[in-house]
Amino acid sequence: MAIQFHKRPGLVAYITCGDPDVDTAIRIILAAVEAGADVIELGVPFSDPVADGPVIQAASERALHGGTSVKDVLHVAREVRRHTDAGLIVFSYMNPLLRYGLEKFCADAANAGVDGVLVTDLPVEEAGPYLAAMSKHNLDPIFLVAPTSPDARLKLIAEHSRGFVYAVSRTGVTGTRQEVASDARDLVKRLRQFTKLPIAVGFGVSNAEQFAEVGRFADAAVIGSAIMQRVFDNPGSEPEAVKAFLRGLTSSMKPAAARKG
Ligand SMILES: O=P(O)(O)OC[C@@H](O)[C@@H](O)c1c[nH]c2ccccc12
């Protein structure tokens, strides 16, 4: 098990664990994998999700309302891992992980079959103890870079990243957009100077055209809000709806030389 992209662009699917409930989230994730997702971001719902747009905020609220905890997210990982080798990333704010206990979290995540972790609000400059715990348990630390990150910061992040690097196509919050920001292309180019790891681009990728466009300049595209919108719009048939949507994106993609993280 490792983070690996099989097509170009690779597909990273963000899924809030626990929306509408934990068991359905497991089925949604497996449906996304069947539709071609290489990596799943297992979203830990959090009460103060400052970087999230309205769709993912609402998904988080529903998941919290159902009582979804870090422990549940690790249960999701363990169940999903029984059926697939897809890359599994826990996607969280720092607070829930600290409450769980950082060392215990890393041990339990590795044991559940998780490959990597992305903490949205942890700057690499403050990540010492986190990086040590991650490395001890052989987990890949994934970081976000933004168009506003200066080169020195891109370099630092590249040095501490494993698996892939997540390039946010613009500043602001997550959510669907009309077009993929041209900033994203420049950012990928700048980041490429500092790393050979795959680069995934996210924020505002919501249809087949944008997905293909990202593939022209990056290794993978992240899709979040467009998936969680399908979950919300299709009560009772969430996995089927997500699968149909993602198949529409991946069906025209070509196999690429596999790029290992
Ligand atoms: O929703 P979008 O625009 O498709 O972007 C992916 C994004 O949602 C997902 O990766 C994500 C969820 N929460 C975040 C917080 C910060 C950065 C990124 C994220």
TrEMBL record:
Its EC number is 4.2.1.20. Gene3D superfamilies: Aldolase class I. InterPro entries: Aldolase_TIM, RibuloseP-bd_barrel, Trp_synthase_alpha_AS, Trp_synthase_suA. Keywords: Amino-acid biosynthesis, Aromatic amino acid biosynthesis, Lyase, Tryptophan biosynthesis. The keyword Lyase applies. Pathway: Amino-acid biosynthesis; L-tryptophan biosynthesis; L-tryptophan from chorismate: step 5/5. GO terms for cellular component: cytosol. The keyword Endoplasmic reticulum does not apply. It catalyses: (1S,2R)-1-C-(indol-3-yl)glycerol 3-phosphate + L-serine = D-glyceraldehyde 3-phosphate + L-tryptophan + H2O. It comes from the Bacteria. The alpha subunit is responsible for the aldol cleavage of indoleglycerol phosphate to indole and glyceraldehyde 3-phosphate. HAMAP family: Trp_synth_alpha. Tetramer of two alpha and two beta chains. This is Tryptophan synthase alpha chain. It comes from Koribacter versatilis (strain Ellin345). The lineage of its organism: Bacteria, Pseudomonadati, Acidobacteriota, Terriglobia, Terriglobales.
